[in-house]
Amino acid sequence: MKNFLIFVILLIFYNVISSEIIVETYDKNVLPNAVDFYEDYVQQNKPVILKQGMYGMDLHNLKVENLKNSGLALVTFIDLNCQNCSEQDPSSNSGEDCGHFTNLNSFLNKELSESGCKIESPLAGNLKKFVIIPRPLICSNYTEAFESTRHILQFHKQESDQVILSENDIFWCLIDGAANIAFGREGSATLIAMRKGDCVFIPAKTKIIKSMTGLENSLEIRLNREKLPEPSIECMKSMGNKSPLSTVSFAGDGTVGIEHSRDLERKLLEKVIKIFGWIFKKSLSVEQFFTQIKTDGEVITDIKVWNNEFIARGNEMFNLLDTNKDGKFDLSDIDKLSEQQMKKFKDYLSDRLADLQDIASDQRFIIYPTKQNQKKISKDEL
Description:
Blueprint: H1 2-13, E1 24-26, H2 34-42, E2 48-50, H3 64-67, H4 71-74, E3 77-79, E4 81-82, E5 101-103, H5 104-111, E6 117-121, H6 125-128, E7 146-164, E8 169-176, E9 178-185, E10 188-195, E11 199-202, E12 207-223, H7 233-237, H8 264-278, H9 286-296, H10 308-321, H11 339-362, H12 371-381
Parallel strand pairs: 1-2
Antiparallel strand pairs: 2-11, 3-5, 4-6, 6-7, 7-12, 8-11, 8-12, 9-10, 9-12
């Protein structure tokens, strides 16, 4: 806090050119559309706080309380940045105090508040599939302007101040935590308090200082101002209101977008996430696993009769899931898998799910006797 206050005092004391930056607060239930946002804020280089702006983006999927002990966290791998890395062999990944690669669930449960490790990298590909492009940026002409994302997830043991000055426009949302932000330009300062759920638009070349204590879980979306065209009603209509971040390319992240309707990986991922989510509640025997599939209605659809064919293919899938062969499917079967092992695991699981779905699909064309029909048949036979 001391450094933060010194910076703010210096900004105010050396105010020699411009007046204090005016930062508007937008607190309506619905965020502005791309046309209004461009005219009111982007074109005028005007910062704005969007109160509870993250909720139109489905960013609740990234809240720690929702990610922790979830199937999504189990299948998502992240590269950790750890403070003590320089004290060890940087080429070694064996020490837990050094930077290493792990699944997100392990980080949230074991390392977030204790190890000094943090996530400070492009938003993981799996997570991009479940975050919606914010309404002010929904415009098909904007696709070339999306530059990069940055996901920060860390625990600040003491007050931390960070200076941000970018050539890009930044759309920044605070998913968990609280922050104080000082906007500075040519010696002026405007102080803003942000709470979880709030978003802020930071125009290119606008200096801010972000001060935080405790948990920080935030997401930046950076836009290349030189490639940002003036939006139109037509460009807003041609882009879906529920398009996830995975549908656009981010050059800085090295990722290529894929149309939502063609994203077969997401459809599989949703099923895998649901199956993995079951084991956070309890371990499953093969019979309990079959019950989950039969009653779920989403992992496998249109099941009419759980017959011997289902049982045979279901046993194959259970044996795949039960990696330690103890007769149960639980967290110990998958929480130690590496990213490559998890990828192969999902591929095998995809094949077994496809087999089960094929059986269910074939049943649509079969008329199975009901109890009433069975009684009629018995009478006729007599």
